[in-house]
Write a structure and sequence with these properties.
Layout (H helix, E strand, L loop, with lengths): L38 E3 L2 E5 L15 E5 L2 E3 L6 H11 L4 H5 L1 E5 L11 E3 L2 E8 L12 H4 L11 H10 L7 H9 L27 E2 L3 E2 L29 E7 L7 H8 L5 E4 L19 E3 L8 E2 L3 E3 L1
Parallel strand pairs: 10-13
Antiparallel strand pairs: 1-4, 2-3, 4-14, 5-7, 6-7, 8-9, 10-11, 11-12
Keywords: Kinase, Transferase
GO molecular function: formylglycine-generating oxidase activity; protein serine/threonine kinase activity
InterPro entries: CTDL_fold (IPR016187), Sulfatase_Mod_Factor_Kinase (IPR051043), SUMF_dom (IPR005532), SUMF_sf (IPR042095)
């Protein structure tokens, strides 16, 4: 049974700010900065998608066989410490900083900030002035919310592209991302196999437990992000491939469909980029997108408390 009728979007809302952020300074590639723990992913036969989609009209199907060349990929999503090194080296200003605000999940907004503006139909997303990759939950929250070993958040697709260029790499394609996420297991739903996470006894990744968006029991140990290197890695050694934070890919968000309402939705998402993996806000009852084949489209300037990325390097 598909869960399409129950699937809303805990994913990233679009800014719709009406104006572009001031331009960022250009980033110059200064050689390759492949981290010591980058993993070599073997090439060959690669599996993408599924013939058993759970969320209709997300483009999860069909299941297809492709081929991929070997590449290297970060064992983790880019961490705050790694992103801070990039900022020190380049003086780059993220889009959240240039816009002057970003989206924060309602539970993370400090009461001291006072009233915030919600997003229509997804009121749990709040516009918070001064929120960015340092001050994750709003002005003055770096000391309480920022951790060097956690994934960097409040990064747009454009920010992720800039970091990847600086690191001498790039963002993964969807095919590369799924190939790495499967960890050599083949046609499986999750990086560890097919066993479903639940709210009681099995929490192999950082997702929501409880009644979204009201109550999170944090049975997995985390209300928001977990350290980037946490839980058991998959067969290739990747950590937190699903859950924790959404991961930007290099690809545009596209769906092949002849249905009018799908084409109309896609027309409103022109220019959106593809994200994979789900986040700490996903739950089977609402946003069942922490499966390998699941996918989401996000505006390239969108920044939130649950969006990150990892880098690949071609061989």
């Amino acid at each position: 049974m598909t869960k399409d009728t129950k699937q809303g979007s805990c994913c990233s809302p679009a800014r719709r700010a009406g104006a572009d952020a001031p331009p960022a300074a250009p980033i110059v590639t200064c050689g390759s900065r492949i981290p010591e723990d980058a993993l070599r992913i073997p090439g060959g036969r690669s599996l993408t998608g599924t013939n058993h989609p759970e969320i209709l009209h997300d483009g999860e199907d069909p299941f297809r066989n492709t081929r991929v060349t070997p590449f290297r990929i970060g064992a983790t999503t880019v961490t705050n410490a790694q992103f801070a090194a990039f900022i020190r080296d380049t003086n780059y200003l993220t889009e959240a900083e240039r816009f002057g605000w970003s989206f924060v999940f309602w539970m993370q907004v400090p009461e001291a900030l006072g009233p915030t503006l919600g997003v229509k139909d997804v009121e749990w997303w709040r516009r918070v002035d001064g929120a960015n990759w340092r001050d994750i939950n709003g002005p003055g929250t770096m000391e309480t919310a920022w951790r060097p070993d956690h994934p960097v958040v409040h990064v747009s697709w454009n920010d992720a592209q800039a970091y990847a260029k600086w690191a001498g790499g790039r963002l993964p394609t969807e095919i590369e991302w799924e190939h790495a996420a499967r960890g050599g297991l083949g046609d499986v739903r999750f990086p560890w196999g097919d066993r479903e996470p639940d709210d009681a006894t099995f929490q192999p990744c950082n997702i929501w437990q409880g009644d979204f968006p009201k109550t999170n029991s944090a049975k997995d140990g985390f209300v928001t992000t977990a350290p980037a290197r946490h839980y058991e890695p998959n067969g290739y050694g990747l950590y937190n491939v699903v859950g924790n934070v959404w991961e930007w890919t290099a690809d545009a968000y596209r769906i092949k469909s002849l249905k009018k309402h799908v084409r109309q939705r896609l027309a409103a998402m022109k220019g959106y980029k593809l994200s994979k993996g789900g986040s700490f806000l996903c739950h089977a009852s609402y946003c069942y997108r922490y499966r390998i084949a699941a996918r989401s489209g996000t505006s390239p300037d969108s920044t939130t408390t649950h969006q990150g990325f990892r880098v690949v390097w071609s061989e």
